[in-house]
Every structure is written in structure tokens, then in C-alpha cells.
Design a protein that fits this description.
Elements: H1 40-52, H2 59-73, E1 77-83, H3 94-115, E2 118-124, E3 137-140, E4 143-146, H4 160-163, H5 168-190, H6 212-233, H7 237-240, E5 245-250, H8 254-259, E6 261-264, E7 267-272, E8 277-280, H9 290-296, E9 302-306, H10 312-322, E10 331-335, H11 342-354, E11 361-364, E12 371-374, E13 386-389, H12 391-408, E14 412-418, H13 453-468
Parallel strand pairs: 1-2, 1-14, 2-5, 5-8, 8-9, 9-10, 10-11, 11-14
Antiparallel strand pairs: 3-4, 6-7, 12-13
Helix pairs in contact: 1-5, 3-5, 3-6, 3-13, 10-11, 11-12, 12-13
Bound molecules: phosphoenolpyruvate and cobalt (II) ion.
Amino acid sequence: MTAAPPAPAAPHNRTHDVGGWSPSSWRTRPTAQQPEWPDPSALRAACAQLARLPPLVTSFEIDALRTQLAEAASGQRFILQGGECAETFDGCEPGAITSRLKILLQMSLVLVQGGRRRVTRIGRFAGQYAKPRSADRETRDGVTLPAYRGDLVNGPGFTAAERTPDPVRLVRGHARAALTLNFVRALVDGGFADLHHPEYWDLAFVRHSPLASEYQAMVDQIGDGVRLMETIVGMSVAQVNRAEFFTSHEGLVLDYEEAQTRQVPHRPGWWDLSTHFPWIGVRTSSPEGGHVEFFRGIENPVGVKVGPDTDPAALARTVEALDPHGTPGRVSLITRLGARDVGRLLPRAIDAVRRTGRPVAWICDPMHGNTETVVPQSGPGKGTPVKTRKFAHVIAEVEQSFEVHRAAGTHLAGIHVELTGENVTECTGGARCISEEMLADAYRSPVDPRLNYEQSLELAMLVARRMRG
Ligand code: PEP
Ligand code: CO
């Protein structure tokens, strides 16, 4: 991600047909999940300002990621995509950014070393500020206000002032994303002092797992492998890998995306320069809707979430619309079907997409199909319903996805997870056996429950084990 040297000017033929498309053509389609901005002139002013500001990423970086996604689709590489469910403007602070980056880097080292495959890291950050909602409005004590749609749109407080969508937030979101990205680029450039010393990692949990000796062997191997590589290459592992950290967010608020979609010198096409890899959420993935219309015209690789309610025939139409020419790396399908149904639903999705002939990258999101509400029977949170996910379900969905792809002759190209580098207690299970009674101890997520530091590393170890096996 650091000023990657411009790729040699490969003849880049526009690979998808953009007939009838323009950055604003989505406005002619039914477009779900958009804020009702009360003041059109304020919205126009904010978008005009956004369109003038420097871009957050470059077309060279975007192209490099598309190539890597193509490699992942064919099984030569593995994608690790992760971060918060929702970033907040307040959460733009160095501690949170550092610990999130650190866990992603550590997981990727585990995957490289244990899984024996090159790994591409994609953060869910520097723009993950907007959330889809099941209802447009929320009513409390007889008062009805617009739902909170993420800091990019409005505030969480239940007052008319906070909940009224404010387009100034689009500009502020761009600034927060730039601050985040600036710090990420600096950290990746400088290297984390302790990254290549697994003996400094916080690995006490390893002892608590039934797989303790296997985990320990993996940790030792990582240390040895990293030291060997540094000796051979003569650079620290952080330097070797520094060009490889990408950003992603759900491309939900199309005013924000459109304003940052541009043409660049010497390369054809339109680029959404707000992020490397935008994805379309499950609620906005209709092939006839505004989101698919917008994303079909940009050069970026595009992700599409696939849920239990996604109709396979509609999915096929979405893939064809986004990728009319079968360009490798262009479309990634991020499946979030749930541990219970993945074995039944994933083969259907694979079949439908196979018939399109498009070479998609299949990524497993084992979080969003496994969310449940529990009511702890004892402990500090006794009696209060809380949203959680069971680590065992997360693992089960990933493992079954490996199996289904193996049986279908496709590859699991990567995983997409919600995590934090902190030791929160939001998901149950893992080596440390977090119980429902412990959820209230350190539950901090304002939205979806995240894997904590230890659970994230353990997931990486289990995935690495499975990749090799
Ligand atoms: C998310 O990734 O936070 C999300 C809302 O996902 P989905 O669209 O898969 O529900
Ligand atoms: Co989420």
C-alpha cells in the first residue's frame, strides 16, 4: 500500500462494458438503504468538496489488488479481510488502529507460515462508517426518529439533532479515513518492532487449547521461518511485506462513493478512489438495484455478500452484471450463510455461479450468519439479552466452506472476519472458553460482536491447519 512503484504500463483494456453507465446512473434505479438527506443543497456542497479532495487510494494499488484476488480465486493465494463491524469517528485513535493492524498482521503471518500460501491483507477500515438497517426509523416512548446509519450519515444519540442525516459527515468521514490510512501506511512502513518476534506475542491462551502442542509448534515455526526469511532477504519481514495492505468498506452510501469516483491520467475507466475494495452488502445486492448499477461501472475489484436469502439465479445475474467479460479478480463473493446452512446453501450458490462461467473468488464470512441473541442466566449481565457469536460456529462455517469448495472443485480464497485487537468478551468459546456469563465483563462493540485478540489468532491457526491439510 505504500507508494507501490507504478506497475509497468501494461496495456489495460477496459474489461467491462459500461454501456449506459455514468457515476450517477445508479440514481435511475431503486436504491436501498440511502439516507433521506433533508437539505439537497448541503448535500451537493459536501459532494462537490469531496470530489475536489485528494483520493484516499490510487489506481495502481487497486489494480495490484485485483491481480492478487485473481490469484486467490485460483488457489495460489489467501485473502485475510478483517476489522470492525462499524468504525466510528471517535474510534479513530492510535491505540485502536495499532492493535487492529497488529492482529491482522499476526494472523497473516500464521496463515503464511502454517498455510504455506501467500496472503493478502485487506482491512475493514478507513471508510467502514456506514451501516445498513432493517428499519428506516426507530421509535422510543412514542418518539420516532431516523435510524442511526453509522457516523458517515448521522449520530447514535436519540435526538432529532443527532439523527438527522448531515452531509458534512461525508466530508468528515473522508478526513477520518485519510487520518486512519495515513497512520496505517506509516506503521506498515516503519514495521512493528515485535512482529517478527512471536516470543513477544500475547500467546498465553495457546496453553488452554486442546491443540496446545500443535499451536506451540506452529508458533515456534513462525519464529524460525521469519528469522530464516530475514536472513535470506536481508530485510525485516515488515519491509518485505510493506506494499501489501489494502482497505475495504461496504459501499453503502452511494453519494459518498460517487463523489470519489474519478478518471485518472493514462488509464481508461472510472476508479472509486475511496477504497481499494468496496463490497455490496446482502441487503443491497439486487441485480436490478442502484448498488449493482453503480459498481458495475468502476474498475475496482468488487465484493458481494451472499446470505441465506440470496436467490442463486439473482446472484448469477449480479455476477454477470458486475463482470460481463469474466475478468479474473473482478468479483469476490463473500458468503455468510451460517454454520447450520452452509453445507446446503453454498453448493447451490457455487452451481449457479459456475453456470455463468465467471471466475469469482469465494471468501467466507463466518460472522454474519452466526449472530444470535442470548440471555445470560448469571454473572454481571444476568437477564439482559446480548448479541453474540459462538466461536465454534465461526470455525464450523469456515471448515465446512473448505469442504464444500473441495468437493465442488473450487477454492476457498479467503476469510472475512469482524475482530478487534483488544481482549473483549463479545463472542463465546475459544481456547479461553468465554461463557455467556462472561459476556458482560468486557463487551464494547456498539454493533456486531467481534472476535477478540486471542480468538482471532486461534482462528488463524485453525485455518492454517486446514489449508495445509
Ligand atoms: C457487515 O459486514 O457488517 C454486514 C452488515 O454484512 P451483511 O451485509 O453480510 O449483513
Ligand atoms: Co457486522
